[in-house]
Amino acid sequence: MRRFTILSLIILLLSGCGWSYATPPVQPALASVTQDLSFVTATVEIPIAPIPASASVQEIHRGVNFGNMLESPNEGEWGLFVQEEYFDLVREAGFDFVRLPVRWNTHAEQEWPYTIDPAFFSRVDEVVNWGVERDLTIIVDFHHYEEMAWDPWSHKDRFLGIWEQVAEHYKNHPSNVFFELLNEPNDQLNASLWNQYLVEVLEMIRETNPTRTVVIGPVNWNAYDWLSTLDVPEDEYLIVTFHYYLPFQFTHQGAEWAGEEAQKWLGTSWGSDAEKVEVVGHFDMVAEWAERKNVRILLGEFGVYGRADMEQRIRWTTFVREQAESHGFAWAYWEFGSGFGAYDPSAGVWRDGLLKALIP
Question: In the CATH hierarchy, which top-level class contains the domain 60-358?
Answer without folding.
Answer: alpha beta
